[in-house]
Amino acid sequence: MLETMFKNLFIAISVLFASASAMSQQTVCLGNDISVCAGTSVQISNCGGSVIGGTAIVLQNPTTVSLSDDSWSSVVNIGFSFSFYGTTYTQCLIGSNGVVTFNTSSANGSNGWSLGGTGQLPNGNNNNTKNSAMLCYSDINPASGGSVFYKTIGTAPNREFYVVYANIPMFSAQDCNYMALILFEGSNNIEYHISNKTLNTGWNGGLAIQGVQNNTGTAATITPGRNNTQWLALNDGQLFQPTSPTNTAAYVNTVIPSKTVLSGSATFGWQNTNGQNFPYNNGTLNIPSAATGTVGYFLTVTGSNCTSQVGAVSDTTFVTGLTSSVSASKVDDMCSAGIGSVTATPTSGIAPYTFLWPGLGNATTATVNNVSAGTYTVQMTDGNGCSSSTNVAVGDTPATFPSSVTPVSCPGGADGTATAEMLPVLGNVTYSWNDPNNQTTSTATGLAAGTYECLVTSSIGCSETVVVIVSEIPEMILQVVNQVDVTCNSGNDGIAEILITDGTAPYFYSWTGSNSNTELSDDLSFGVTTVTVLDAKACVVTEDISIGQPTALSIAQMSQDTVICIGDSVRLYAQGAGGSSPYIYNWSKNNQGVGNGSEIYVTPSGPLTEYCLVLSEQCSSPMADACVTVKYPDEVNPSLVPDKTGECFPIEVTFDNTTNTTEIVSYTIWTYSDGEKDTVPGENPVVHEFGEGIFGIDMEVVTNRGCSYKKSFPNLIEGFPYPEASFYVNPNPASIFEPKVTAYSQSGSDVLSTKWFAEGAKPDYSSIQNPTFKYSNEIQNYPLILVVENGYGCTDTLQKLVRIENEVLIFSPNTFTPDGDGLNDTWKVQIQGIDIQNFQLEIFNRWGEKVFESLDPDGEWAGTYGDGRIVKEGAYVWIIKAHDFENDNKYEFNGTVTILK
């Protein structure tokens, strides 16, 4: 059975050959071939019900998974039991980042995108890689476009589970990725098929992983070159095969042919090998009339794959239209004797053949004898059952009267002969010629050119007048039957061959510019040669023959003089013209060979290099040559001028690009040692802010030729550090009654200058390290500012508040003598800082009896009871309750006072 290169992998069909039959409709399943008689109708059916080709698989009505960026799907049923690293699963999760995991506890969770800290597998750094089949674990984003779908197809025990990522862009990109994962029941194989995998180095480092890893991160099998690296893939197929179907503890990776998996929205149609297209018609194609010869019919399916179309072609049914034909010959009857015959001869078809002669008693042989005059039909059927027929007419000729002549050998001669016969000879035959000699024999001789008649008569009654024309031998005709130009310019292998007809052989030949003496000359040069022919009768004929030659070699196209970057390679090319055999290109520099072929790449070692080409050809015609010059551009020496080189950080520096060159600068790349980089067009200035430290700049100038020139400027910029201002104040807060404080600087050792600003104090400025300030007797917060400066002129400022607050003070005498002598006769408490409206003094004797009370802070006790009686000598307890005049805080003081008399 004929097969196409796109053999259907999934529709198993047996080989079936159908016999040709006449005109009844034949049916056949797609993939089987059939031979029928031409004109028979044929119906081809897609008995398998779907088209799965060697280059694509079509999933009918797959389930679409709606995934947001960096997410796992809900739990998905695989549809069969699948063993992965020694554990059997029936469910999985589909991740938005090109990974399928068997850890279903992560359902609807986050499928992390970052691979920067994952490292090379196997390891346990990234939970997303554990117990997972990584088709292409990378940061793709189904939320930005494309679709993700899955389906289980086939029947047990050979089902297959498909997950397809169709037309998915990378995160933060407009590219397109198309890839599919397949799990196989029974074998527990895993296949990855990537139609297109892009690379976005600007995100996630462009990293991606392809492979499998167990649940502990201790075992993994990774596609070489795809272990958390940057990689691309196009029409790529990978197989991950366990040690055996029952031992899935380890896997082996091999490359396999790539397939593209399409959804059921793909378009089906019929097509044949003649380029004709037909509608799908639910998988049935009706061919109303099989054409003669062989035509293949097959199904096609197409679907979208990123920005292009992907197609698959099914197996092919070849329909062969067979024909048969027959011809018939006859031998006429003679004189109605019934001795004619007819013979049928097959001209097409295959044996065995059967024949039927309806008009000859239904004879069934190819030849029928003893046939009388008439028209007869023969019907023939070949081994394919294809029928054909033809007619043959049998005449009734009493006899045939053939004639023959011998022409006159030379014009004007009389050596011709003429013969007349009767075949078969029936009875006695007589001859009568009308030539000048009235000859009566079957052959008349000595005839000149002309027309002669001979009456042939048989004794049985048949007669015929035979007319014979005696001709002269025609003059020789010279015909050029073969003419071949010189194969190589300036060569001598031209060929001319002539054919002489008529005249009288043998012929004698002569060629100008050649050694040949036959009808063929094969050593001719470019130009005109003359051939002369003489026959046996000395007749002469000549002919001029023009022999051409190929045009001379020339170099039609060649690389122009060019300028390239230092160290770059350049493509040199040339296109030869003329000649007649394969070209030979030899390139050289300083007479030293550098390459062969119409295209070479060279890397000049100097500023000006001349490359020369010698063009020749295999047949060794004259050579052609030319040269081309390759030179370097004018030197470019990157240079810059900063507007400053040092300042207290952050330091903003403007760099002027002072590169002096005649080349056109396309852009400049500024790379700073702090890890930052700027790319600016042309030679424009650039501004960059530096932090603390010493920094260098790498400058790369790129010209419009693509040439790159680099120069480093180390330790060019310094960001000076700042000093650290620190101090404390003692006392703080200070009493309103003693508003003096000392400030102590605790600033760093790099401080060279100290400045104090004390608002409301005396002095209000100081430049010593630990100054003392005196404030007014006012309750208030006063700002104290310290400004320090280091050797770079960098300053730091620190402000703190100095608090002057109220203080309640009390002075109480412990003895007085109320004896009326005018000395120490009363007892009075001295108290400051209180609210005089909230004051209470109480005095008690030793039995707890109150003997005196006053609400006046300036009140005095004369040693008497409230009624004026003198108290006894001894010790008395006093208690004072008062409020702070600033904030109404409550105070209670107590003590004793002794009365002496």
Properties at a glance:
elongated; 73 strands; disordered N terminus; mainly beta; Immunoglobulin-like; 53% strand; 901 residues; seven-stranded antiparallel beta sheet; 9 domains; six-stranded antiparallel beta sheet
What does this structure look like?
- The chain is mostly beta strands.
- The chain folds into nine domains: about 90 residues, Immunoglobulins (Immunoglobulin-like, Sandwich), CATH 2.60.40.10; about 200 residues, no CATH class; about 70 residues, Immunoglobulin-like (Sandwich); about 70 residues, Immunoglobulin-like (Sandwich), CATH 2.60.40; about 70 residues, Immunoglobulin-like (Sandwich); about 80 residues, Immunoglobulin-like, CATH 2.60.40; about 80 residues, Immunoglobulin-like; about 80 residues, Immunoglobulins (Immunoglobulin-like, Sandwich); and more.
- The chain has no helices and 73 strands.
- It has a seven-stranded antiparallel beta sheet, with no helix packed on it.
- Strand 10 and strand 11 form a beta hairpin.
- It starts with about 25 loop residues before the first strand and ends with a strand.
- The N terminus is likely disordered.
> Main beta sheet, described?
7 strands, antiparallel
Count structural domains. Answer: 9
Distance between the termini: 150 Å
Report strand %: over 45%
**Major sheet strand order:** 5-10-11-12-13-16-17
Low-confidence residue ranges? 1-22, 49-54, 308-312
What integer value in Å does the Rg equal?
Answer: 60 Å
Number of helices: 0
Keywords: Signal
Protein name: T9SS type B sorting domain-containing protein
